[in-house]
Amino acid sequence: MTRLPPHPPLVQHYAGDAAREPFVRDLFDRGAPAYDQIDAVFSLGTGPRYRREALRRSGLAPGRRMLDVAIGTGLVAREALGILGRPGDLVGLDVSPGMLRQARSLGLPLVQAKAEAIPLADASMDLVTVGYALRHFADLEATFAEFRRVLRPGGGVLLLEIDQPESALGQRALRFYLGRAVPALSRWLGGGRDARAMMRYFWDTIDTCVPAAAIEHALAAAGFAEVSCEVQLGIFRAYRAKAPPAA
Fold it and tell me: For the sheet containing 125-131, what is the strand order?
């Protein structure tokens, strides 16, 4: 299996590939307390309704089981709980202990682990979700292979992401907003330098992320079918895919 990082090493943040994982874990540990406060600014107001509708369109319904990878503070998981109704039907996974501490209030099972090595049984989930965190994984090929392994036949994947708009004007506007304004506002809103550093890293991962076609290709290469990408407002992407049905 080939290795597909979501972006090249960001040497302005860490020295190289070996330093990426501890950097990312520490960055989110330090930024976790302020994350919910600044999310509304960073996500451009996508909010709970957008997440809830995306989950329903992906087939989430009572009685199904969901794995929220890179759960963070639980922004996607909160909406999923409103649909599922039972915390036991939802598992949250994250590499950051700080983020997992913030998610404890949801009362659902939490696991500290990497997306590339999920400690769950084969064919145990109906939906795997990632909310604006795909860029923080080390290897998309290995990650998508794990998603397929833990999904039941016919189970689905939902990946919410932010991408560059097609127009040059839109790119400049997004660069200013997410690259400069949001990091500054994050510090002003009470997150301090840790929140500013986290939001600056967010933008740099968006700016250098592999194109949407590469993400769709990687999903297909992992064995997923019905791979699609829904775009809203030119920048919000919802990737969806299905595990093959039972033979």
Answer: 110-112, 90-94, 66-69, 125-131, 151-162, 236-242, 225-232
Q: Kindly state the tokens that stand for 125.
A: 């989930």
DSSP single-letter state for residue 87: G
Class of domain 19-165+204-242: alpha beta
Residue 45's pLDDT is what?
57
Q: Could you tell me if 67 and 129 are in contact, meaning their C-beta atoms sit under 8 angstroms apart? A: yes
Cα Rg for the chain, rounded, in angstroms? 17
The per-residue pLDDT for range 80-100, each reduced to its tens digit, is: 999 999 999 999 999 999 999
Distances, alpha carbon 157 to alpha carbons 153, 232, 234, in Å: 12, 18, 21
- The secondary structure of residue 246, as a DSSP letter, is P
CA distance 65 to 91: 8
Question: d(Cα 38, Cα 202) in Å, to the nearest integer?
Answer: 12
* Helix, strand, coil in percent for the chain, rounding step 5: 50, 20, 30
Domain ranges in the chain are 19-165+204-242
Please tell me the pTM assigned to this model: 0.94
The tens digit of pLDDT for each residue in 148-204 reads 999 999 999 999 999 988 889 888 888 888 888 888 877 776 667 888 888 899 999
Q: Which amino acid is at 25?
A: R
